[in-house]
Amino acid sequence: MKRPGLVTALVHVGLVLACVVALYPVLWVVKLALSPAQALTLSVSPFPEAVTLDHFRDVVGATDSQGRWLFGRQLGASVVVSGLTTVVGLSLAVTAAYALSRFRFPGKDAGMQTLLVTQMFPATLMLVPLFSLLQALGLLDSWAGLVLVYSTSSLPFCVWMLKGYFDTIPRELEEAATMDGASPWQTFVKVVLPLARPALAVTALFSFMTAWNEFILAATLINDAGRFTLPVALQQYVGEWKTEWGHFAAGALLVSAPVMALFFALQRFLVGGLTAGAVKG
Amino acid sequence: MRWLAVALALSACADAPAARPLKLWHAYRGGEEQAIERAVARFTEETHVAVEVLSVPYDAFSSKLTSAIPHGAGPDVFIFAHERLRQFHRLKVVAPTTQRLERARYLPSTVEALDVDGELYGYPLSLKTLALFVNTALVTDPPETTDQWLSQLEATSDAERARFGLAYAAGDFYLHAPFVFGFGARLFDDAGRASFDTKGMARSLAFVKALQTRGFMPQEVSGALVKSLFNEGRAAMVISGPWFTGEIDPSVRYRITPLPTVSETGLPLTPFLGVEAALVSSRASRPDDAHRLAEFLSRGEATALRVNPGRQIPAELAAYERPEVVGDEAIAAFRRAAERAVPTPNTLEMAKVWEPMKLALRGVLQGEVSPEAAGALAERRYAALNREQPSGRDRPGATSPWPWLVALAGGLVAFAVRQWRRRGPPVPFARRYPEAARGLAYVAPAAVGIAVLIVVPFSVGISLAFFHHEAGDYTFVGLANFVDILTSKGYRVTEPLSFWFTLAVTIAWTFVNVALHLGIGLGLALLLKDPLLKLRAVYRVVLIVPWAVPNYITALMWKGMFHRQFGAINGLLAALGLEPVSWFTHFSTSFAANVITNTWLGFPFMMVVSLGALQSIPQDLYEAAEVDGASKWTQLRRITLPLLKPALLPSVILGCVWTFNMFNIIYLVSGGEPGGATDILVSEAYRWAFQRNEQYGFAAAYSVLIFFVLLGWTRLTRRLTGPEAA
Questions:
Q1: Domain harbouring A201, CATH code
Q2: Would you call A122 and B540 a contact, using CB atoms and an 8 Å cutoff?
Q3: Segments forming the whole domain that contains residue A227
Q4: Whether the Cβ atoms of residue A279 and residue B647 lie closer than 8 Å to each other
Q5: N or C: which end of chain A has fewer CB atoms below 10 A?
Q6: What was the pLDDT predicted at B311?
């Protein structure tokens, strides 16, 4: 199927245009982060006229009055909270999704319905009751509280996705494993999970992002600047009277960079992982 | 060094009567933050009471305080502006200082600001008000009266050359208030109710409108524009507050003076006075220490630190005798300005004034409503926001929740019985569900998590929908909130505030976005489908970048790009020879700005899903079609699209639900402008909950309706598309 040259050229033009649109706003942030000014300035070019690393230096070098290195601690907090959220969220989601895909039990259909329905709750209004609940559980001002909330809030999507993927894995493989004397748990861990790698990667990425990007709950629940997550620190550059655009942009790039890196690392799984489940139809 | 610190800490602990440090929360940044931290360190040195200081992002501060303090999990002392004092007082989170505060030490107006029903709360730290910044190279004598001012403005303005006599954020009611009072209007009548439809109000609006139409000041001024115009010498005068001194370029010579007097009325332009105070929590663990800390921050050495490096205008009188303050012109000027200012009323009524005034002000400046009619417009918005507690007396059964609970329980039982009966002939449980035990065990952890952390808080949230909330008190009102929302009580159905209008906007928003996401995503996926395409991997990587950027960053970034004067989009339009667009002053452009932002953010997801779905279509179908002589277009219509449908449908449904509730974009990009017209249901609910005097019950009723709309919608699509959808 050789395409004529003109068509290929048009395809490339279309894609390049799309890429420009996708990148332009990001370059604009890069420019803000690298320009010496702290404010917006009018210009169309996404490339900075003068380059300075001052904003990055300020953001990364931030310390508090006791000389604690805030950025380092907050980065650590973000990594710990997001990492744990991924682990907890994924373990909960994997088992639930597997059960929903393979076993029959009462309440299964209702369960699948509930998952979709939970996505319809407007989350912004849950702050007040959630606070009381976490206090009752003794989890205020702790990472554990954040991890629990984040991992449950990403659960419905993860379960939904993983169940779809598990549905596409032929049951014969598990039956063969059982014949060979594997226990149900061994079958699950040794046979099914390795086959579901793409979907696991995607759900892990999703859980991680949920935790990595959230700031309202983190700012409300945590009472120590050294244990804030990075988005909270970023939010501090947006003030009542003025926004420190340079710092905000530099911080935004630093916060986004790890997520982008993960995206690129996992992108070969993205396509298969997201869709395979749904294709079954 | 480290050991020394530990030893010091230990000795401090030994001296202090209690080990737990006091907690102090504030939202300061930069110099002000440094000042507070150094003042606290001095306090600890003197008293050996340890203090933990926390700087909270401004946007999260008030919600953090109102959730934490009533639970006893908040700070002992916190710094806040006095406007919110009455709300804090009603929530019972602040302790009175009437007996402790030495009034004579502070500027009288700053003490007056802390008065709630005859009791004082907190210790005044600093004040904020508005004054006139005059570039002395352009205007030699600051104006005394508005007549003098107008002639100076005329002389210094040249709209053709983009030079203006004046620049200030005119669309903000805080900056318009001086004109309202200067033209003799009263914001509140004797009963304490706000009144907008007055002569003075109309005259103040006409005056400001004339400043704009005569070319004395630019249109749609934002803080960023004020700063750049003043620093480039293109604005001779600026109205702003103490925070502006830090923004001025060192090369600009300027003076700060009180605002001029209105020639027609003889009254000065009177700005609001805001007082920042150290407030002591009513739940402070050691009240005496907490009061000592708060008072310490308001006096002596701490004041000196707040003046320098904090650059605050101090409330303490003694500070004005210090040599470094006497020589500081800016501080002296703001003190003079403060003498003319009126403390912002700390009443609950005041909190309801901002939104109607913003509506009226922007309407006038954008020429959509005349200055005479604007008061009535504000009045109507005010009446709509100012919901009285729905009276339960005239509705039977609306005074106690019990009959409702009994009815609900009865309904549930009846539903369960009906479900059970519909099951048909009984099948033994073990045969019906052979793996029930294992299945349930696998599901249990996730189910418990979802039940406890999502379903429980939401049920609590939902039950609030049957209550009216006012400053900490909940009253059961039955279905009154729902009735008010659905009948759009107090405003016409076609107004932005009405549920039906917002619902229509939300549906349009969801539909347009999902269609664009799907169209663009699928289109790009089709372009990228060919595995032999050169640079395919590069394109794919670049095109998912928008997905990887956190969405609140996306929102703020696009908000900046849509900026009237400094945005890249208007820059591009200008480069193409087109007129710049004021994105957020018209419904259509404002809506478009939101859609553009959300489309940028959402197309990669659909692209990736479509790519996967395309790969799953067996290649031999195309080969067969090719053999039969089907054109590319026929192949797309007859093979690709039908086979994509089942794969894309779940993503489309999920996408609809997400877009329907996409709060961040609406809230951060258009902010509902103009006049709340682009708000969607979720952002409207948020406003009722957090920006209109905490009407939690009304907001909860909104959430319940959102929930039912979505539930109904997914049911409908399921019926239309068959079982594969969900």
A1: 1.10.3720.10
A2: no
A3: 55-280
A4: yes
A5: N
A6: 87
pTM (predicted TM-score): 0.85
Choose among A15, A123, A148: nearest Cβ to B539.
Answer: A15
Chain A: closest CA distance from residue B178 (Å): 19
H or E segment and range at residue B216: none
**Residue B182 is encoded by which pair of tokens?**
């200067």
What is the amino acid identity at position B260?
P
Say if residue B674 is preceded by a cis peptide, omega within 30 of 0: yes
Residues with Cβ within 8 Å of residue B239, at least 6 apart in sequence: B130, B131, B132, B133, B166, B168, B175, B178, B259
3-state secondary structure of B254: strand
Residue A24 pLDDT greater than 80, yes or no: yes
The amino acid that residue B33 corresponds to is E
Confidence at residue B16, expressed as pLDDT on a 0 to 100 scale: 43
**A residues 251-280 closer than 8 Å to B (CB):** 252, 255-256, 259-260, 262-264, 267, 270-276, 278-279
Q: Which residues touch A96 (CB under 8 Å, ≥6 apart)?
A: A155, A159, B442, B443, B445, B446, B447
CA A215 – CA B57 distance, rounded (Å) = 10
A72 and A40 in a common domain: no
Is the CB of residue A122 less than 8 Å away from at least one CB of chain B?
yes
Cα–Cα dist B326/B338, whole Å: 16
| Over residues B189-207, mean pLDDT | 91
Question: Which of B366, B385, B404 corresponds to the end of one domain?
Answer: B385
Does a structural domain hold residue B505? no
Sort out which chain B residues have CB atoms less than 8 A from A22's CB and list them.
542-543, 545-546, 600, 604
Q: Tally the domains of chain A.
A: 2
ipTM topping 0.85:
yes
> Which positions ≥6 away from B151 have C-beta within 8 Å?
none
